[in-house]
Amino acid sequence: MPTRKSDMEILIVDDDNIVCMLHRNQLLRSQVPYKLVTCSNGKQAFEYIRSKKEEVNSFLVLLDINMPVMNGWEFLEKFKEKSLDTDIYVVLVSSSTYRDDKQKAFRSDKVIDYVTKPLGVSDVEKIKNLKEIKSYFN
Question: Using CA atoms in the order 47, 44, 136, 94, what is the torsion angle rounded to 10 degrees?
């Protein structure tokens, strides 16, 4: 009998371990019911998603912009190049308050929101209620 795919996993993608810990704590405090995975750059996140696409239906990626190895923009570009046949929803979580970054973010069909870090409880609640992913949290 085939294994049932997991509904969703949440990836926290940031090169700052303290930020990852803060975001993880906020998600746990908000009782997010999905597996939380931490990746330190876009390449690691992309490879993780690629390795799990047969086991997981959807990924919510909380993505920083400025990271070594593969930054957030390069991560988004990678999905244009390679279709992974799985649902990927990206919330950019960045310290950048530049309007150009926010505009650039929404040019990607994967990006569903842009939040200034660090994530707060109200940010998590807002993310959980985004129309694209609301059904996963109700």
Answer: -140
Residue type, 91: V
Residue that the structure tokens 């209620």 belong to: 129
Angle at which helices 42-52 and 72-81 pack, to 10 degrees? 40
Q: Which residue has the tokens 């294994």?
A: 3
Tokens of 11: 């990836």
Most confident of 53-57, 82-86, 125-129: 125-129
Helices (H) and strands (E) counted in the chain, each on its own, are 5, 5
pLDDT for the residue 85: 63
For the chain, what's the residue count? 138
How far from 13 is each of 46, 91, 122, CA to CA, in Å? 10, 10, 20
Assigned token pair, 53: 């696409």
Q: How much is the pLDDT for 3?
A: 45
Residue 54 has pLDDT above 90, yes or no: no
* pTM metric for this prediction: 0.92
